[in-house]
Structure formats: C-alpha cells, structure tokens
C-alpha cells in the first residue's frame, strides 16, 4: 500500500479476461488502514497504525498487532477457516478460527 493511502480492497482483477483470479497479499502502511479481501484465500497484514483487517468468506491469513505499541488492530475472519496471527514484542501466536 502506498504511503498516503488508508483503505485497500482486494478485488478479482483478472476475472474479466476469463482467468481465475489468484489469491492476493494486502499489506498496510504506517497509517490507520482498512483492508478487506476478495473471495479468495488471501494474506492480509497490518503495519503501523491501528488497522482493521476483514477476511470475509474465504480461508485467509490475517496478521496484526496486539496493541502493545499503541497500535490497536481489529481482525475479523468471517465465515471461512482463517489463521489469525497476533504480533508483539516478545513472541507471536496464531489461532485457527
């Protein structure tokens, strides 16, 4: 994501050409970002700022911060089987939802 952007929505960019759209990677920047996926199995990752990651219906991997550095991320997996990872200064932990 570019430096001065806040919202990122992953879309099926190749479907109009008859190709199945592939999974995408959406990574935030230092601002407070909102990142939403398409209907594929995507990777969404927060960076600096307080970010909101939304996985919707697919099987996604969401990586966010635990808020220990004043960043307060919101990770929503949706109805798919998602892997949610929380980063902090000491270790990382991941859970399936």
Based on the model shown, name its key terms:
97 residues; four-stranded parallel sheet; single chain
Write a structural description:
The chain is mainly beta. The chain has one domain (7-96). It has no helices and nine strands. The protein has a five-stranded mixed β-sheet with strand order 2-4-6-8-9, with no helix packed on it. A four-stranded parallel β-sheet has the order 1-3-5-7, with no helix packed on it. A hairpin with a 4-residue loop joins strand 8 and strand 9. The radius of gyration is 13 Å and the shape is globular. The relative contact order is 0.18. The model has no long low-confidence stretch (mean pLDDT 79).
How many separate domains? 1
User: Beta fraction of the residues?
Assistant: 25-35%
Main β sheet profile: 5 strands, mixed
Inertia-based shape: globular
Specify the structural class. mainly beta
Biggest sheet: strand arrangement: 2-4-6-8-9
Number of strands: 9
What secondary-structure arrangement, pairings included, does this model have?
Layout: E1 7-9, E2 25-27, E3 34-36, E4 43-45, E5 52-54, E6 61-65, E7 74-76, E8 83-87, E9 92-96
Parallel strand pairs: 1-3, 2-4, 3-5, 4-6, 5-7, 6-8
Antiparallel strand pairs: 8-9
